[in-house]
Design brief:
single chain; alpha+beta; Ribosomal Protein S5, domain 2; Alpha-Beta Plaits; 2 domains; 5-stranded antiparallel β-sheet; 4-stranded antiparallel β-sheet; about 30% helix; about 40% strand; Impact_N_sf
Length: about 200
């Protein structure tokens, strides 16, 4: 299953037994960015501002005074259930005077978060790989043409007595194709070394 993040913030409102729930979701690249957005959208006049984020291996959640396990965990489950990453969701509740019980809270928090995320605009997360490439000067134009064909970005370039040295970044699914075409164009003379992978 491929991971996605949000292309833009999203909102969804729900009313359950006179309690109003506002789910707000946003993309976040770091836990610090997620917590900054939490501070920005939390309503100090509301009864609760419950939240969760998932950013790579990092995740956190808070019930913000609701009974343990009835708010933050269901919000996190909504994020993970939709294969999202780099996302924070805040569900703000204004109490309407009628207790919902643990099951009702789980359904309200988890359901509003899930619906907010379901309707939010998404974008695929791209796995990238970095590589170092060394080749003769005579291959420079062919190498640059191959880079364009596979969506590679040049992060650095240098020259020495043996030729051209490049530091590249390209989509991970394109790495093997790039390596194969580079080998064909250079008749095995160019050297490509994969050095790092990340997700953007």
């Amino acid at each position: 299953m491929s991971l996605h993040t949000l292309a833009a913030p999203a909102r969804f409102t729900l009313e359950v037994k006179k309690s109003r729930f506002l789910a707000q979701a946003a993309p976040a690249e770091t836990p610090e960015a997620a917590l900054a957005w939490l501070r920005q959208v939390s309503d100090g006049d509301a009864t609760h501002n419950c939240w969760a984020y998932r950013i790579g291996p990092a995740y956190r959640y808070s019930d913000d005074g609701e009974p343990g396990g009835t708010a933050g965990r269901p919000i996190l489950a909504a994020i993970e259930g939709q294969a999202l990453d780099g996302v924070i969701v805040v569900v703000t509740r204004w109490y309407g005077g009628i207790n919902l019980g643990a099951g009702g809270l789980v359904r309200a928090y988890g359901g509003s978060a899930a619906e907010c995320l379901r309707t939010a605009p998404r974008q695929a997360l791209i796995a990238w790989v970095e590589a170092r490439l060394a080749c003769d000067f005579s291959l420079a134009s062919n190498v640059h043409a191959l880079m364009v064909a596979v969506g590679a970005e040049k992060l650095g370039e240098s020259f020495d007595e043996t030729g051209l040295r490049l530091h590249l970044r390209l989509p991970a699914p394109m790495f093997d194709r790039f390596a194969l075409r580079l080998r064909d164009v250079s008749r095995g003379a160019a050297h490509l070394l994969r050095i790092e992978t990340d997700i953007e």
